[in-house]
Amino acid sequence: MTLTTDADPAVDVVGVTKRYGPLVAVDDVSLRVAPGEVYGILGPNGAGKTTLLRMLFGLIRPDSGTIAVFGRSWSRDDVRTLDGVAGFIESPKFYPYLTGRQNLEGLRLLDGSGLPDRLEEVLDVVDLTGREDDKVGGYSYGMRQRLGVAASLLRSPRLLVLDEPANGLDPGGIRDMRALVKRLADGGLTVLLSSHHMDEVEEICDNVTIMNRGSVAFHGTIDDLRAMAPDPGHLLRTGDDRQAVAIGRARHPGVVVEPAPDGGLVATGSERDLSAYVADLVRAEVPLLAFTPTRTPLEALFFMLTDARPDDVRLRGKEAVR
Ligand SMILES: Nc1ncnc2c1ncn2[C@@H]1O[C@H](COP(=O)(O)OP(=O)(O)OP(=O)(O)O)[C@@H](O)[C@H]1O
Questions:
Q1: What's the gap in Å between 54 CA and the centre of ligand 1?
Q2: Which of 160, 138, 124 lies closest to 38 in space, CA to CA?
């Protein structure tokens, strides 16, 4: 058995590789999650996020490299590696004909009656108080995801691992999930989550690893990412695109104006240069019909660092497991 100390990283992944035949699903990935932080693993579909989390949970073994959780590793400590760890891969699974409370009670029994009864407390944390006696079959997808978090919290974990917790949620559900992760992090819980949405990790994560085709495309803080982000692009609709382009080329070297794939123009430049350009269009009486951000600078960077495309975000209908 390995003794763990407070100085141990919550998660320490060193040079982990996993192959499926010729495909390298995870390619020499290293990352370190400090206790108390919210860490995001970001990447498009197929980047290797779930494979990495599966290895952390011991569901599959790496071909090479090591994963330690609070100083424990699968090779030395086997299932004790998961002491203090809870979470779910893909989506949590429940009995739909039982209530939320009955599902949680069942899981508590399965985990051993030694666990303290935190049922009411965890229901409150995930904002399901008042709905606990409804059948899970009638829950929205977001409520099920939150019940999954509640099930994890029953174990009083030190580390919560969530695989794309906002996947498949509507905007309200995404907001609720983000607020929940923030609350948990504020309470001192270490959270490792995966996502393929930059805006999901941007607000809540301290550090991120961006993965692409199994490899690490970026490691660092959100502030580091912001410093690398390109100027924001804006979709411009005018009554005279030809003149709008001509004005940009002649008088605004800091602004790039290009035809947008779906019609109109995309103008890219610093905020100050773009404002001056738009003011000039107005002065020249070019009819201005729309001026809207195409995507945030961080999203733009994400698309630059990975193979993701803005319309690439497909919702998975994968088999759910707890
Ligand atoms: N059991 C498996 N057998 C063969 N290939 C697999 C297996 N599991 C994953 N892969 C492949 O490994 C790559 C990484 O998949 P993974 O599910 O880890 O990606 P992901 O980043 O989680 O993407 P998604 O958001 O689509 O789940 C993909 O190309 C996937 O097809």
A1: 10
A2: 160
